[in-house]
Write a structure and sequence with these properties.
There is one protein chain. With 454 residues, the protein is an alpha/beta fold. The mean pLDDT is 94. The strands form 3 sheets. It has a 9-stranded mixed beta sheet with strand order 16-15-14-13-7-12-11-8-17. The protein has a 6-stranded parallel beta sheet with strand order 3-2-1-4-5-6. The protein is built from 13 helices and 17 strands.
Length: 454
């Protein structure tokens, strides 16, 4: 599959393109990952010209990618071009995209996807072109199936790149390396030795101007259904034949298929939801979520979600997987916490303390910590907790940039396949159903506090 050197961003005036995509590709140029600057065509409805787009992009890169040298930034923006067009208008899109093979990034609100996909099919993509679709891939299981049907009607699966940037986070990619490349871990990565797994992604941030999207999604759809299930796959999947191509994607899909489907009543018992009320974070007064600009109180949108999953296979039966995420918390917690079982025999049984062994992978910033038990120097029979930790080196380029480079090369390994997108929704659908029926109450917590669910 031939490499591409042309990127078309539909939705170029939006936050995703401005704060993430362009700075990431400028980082890639700075890091020497591009032989030459990309030709980038920004497409949006804003009444801009090339000069305005380049100036605005240069400012965004300076702010979001401060490590990019001024000379590299100037070289990068020289290759930016802007076209005013509606992404759902076939004629306008045809003029904007042209007839060169291109990587077309749909940095658009999900509700526009169907009309944009039909417009792209109508104009006919030049041979060799590919499409990147940003998460979420649908709004629930049924809509994910319908979106896949629409895509398959018009494009082949090998041209579709469903992106979830968590697949390229260094901390997430470190998990299979820890599991499958280390003899001290590989034999004990199972229900015989692991008590439970926690996947936690909690933040002090609140809406941050995302009410138009977030209030129709909530914590479960925004984080758990996609990003955090990617972490689950890395923690729990069976060893793939290799970490590239279809072998990796097959292993992820099989893991998701092994996740037990709860009934709505079971899902209600296995979940907790809440939203923040007025509070204070870092000295700043935070309004009640329902009073935030753009929020519709009737949506009953949660800003905190916790669910418990179980995996029905030989490796994991009986091990609870606890996944929680939330906004407006007291502090950031971004961790995959593998908690091991206590030893049930041996000479230290009468001196054992309650703290179990654990392997903890922290994300953004990335570090690894191992919790062990050792004896106290003053009393060799008394045990104490010891934490061994290492900071992981920073990524050369952001995850979005790494994945765009993959797509330009035609490598789908770290992208989401159609069946994976559907299985991810199947996993969370019972919780959506239970919550829609109000089987799980909506709790509240003051902004700036940590949610306690026990």
């Amino acid at each position: 599959m031939a490499d591409l050197n042309r990127l078309v961003i539909l939705g170029a005036a939006g936050d995703l393109s401005t704060r993430f995509l362009l700075p990431a590709m400028a980082d890639a140029l700075q890091a020497g990952k591009l032989e030459r600057p990309l030709e980038i065509i920004g497409v949006a409805r804003a009444d801009w010209d090339n000069d305005h787009y380049r100036s605005r992009s240069a400012d965004a890169i300076a702010e979001s990618a401060p490590g990019v040298e001024a000379s590299v930034r100037d070289q990068f923006v020289e290759h930016l071009h802007y076209v005013k067009a509606d992404a759902t208008d076939a004629d306008a899109l045809s003029r904007a995209i042209g007839d060169k093979p291109s990587l077309i990034y749909l940095a658009l609100p999900p509700k526009i996807y169907p009309d944009c996909i039909r417009a792209l099919e109508e104009i006919g993509l030049t041979a060799g072109s590919r499409i990147i679709i940003e998460k979420p891939f649908g709004d629930d299981y049924d809509s994910a199936v319908e979106l896949n049907k629409l895509l398959k009607q018009h494009f082949s699966e090998d041209t579709i790149y469903r992106i979830d940037h968590f697949t390229a986070l260094q901390s997430v990619e470190a998990i299979p390396a820890l599991r499958f490349a280390n003899r001290i871990l590989q034999p004990v990565w199972s229900r015989e030795h692991i008590e439970q797994v926690e996947i936690i992604f909690e933040d002090i941030s609140t809406l941050g101007g995302r009410a138009s999207y977030y209030d129709t999604a909530g914590a479960l759809k925004d984080m758990t259904q996609n990003h955090l299930l990617q972490i689950l796959c890395m923690v729990a999947m069976e060893p793939p034949e290799d970490m590239q191509g279809e072998s990796l994607r097959d292993a992820k899909v099989q893991l998701l298929k092994d996740v037990r489907s709860w009934s709505p009543d079971e899902a209600a018992k296995m979940s907790y939801r809440a939203r923040y009320t007025a509070g204070e974070i870092n000295g700043k007064q935070i309004p009640d979520y329902v009073d935030e600009d753009g929020v519709d109180p009737d949506n009953r949108t949660e800003t905190f979600a916790k669910i418990q999953l179980e995996i029905d296979n030989d490796r994991w039966t009986g091990v609870p997987f606890l996944i929680r995420t939330g906004k407006g918390q007291a502090y950031r917690r971004r961790i995959a916490n593998i908690v091991f079982k206590q030893l049930d025999e041996g000479p230290y049984q009468t001196h054992m303390i309650e703290t179990p062994n654990a392997l903890q992978l922290y994300m953004l910033p990335d570090s690894l910590q191992v919790r062990l038990l050792l004896n106290r120097p003053e009393d060799p029979l008394q045990l104490r907790e010891v934490n061994l930790s290492i900071d992981l080196p920073q990524e050369n380029i952001p995850a979005h940039g790494a994945l765009i480079l993959d797509a330009l090369r035609g490598d789908q390994s770290r992208f989401i396949r159609d069946d994976e997108a559907e299985e991810s929704w199947r996993v969370v659908q019972p919780f959506l159903d239970a919550w829609a029926q109000d089987l799980t109450p909506m709790h509240e917590y003051p902004a700036g506090t940590q949610v306690e669910t026990n």
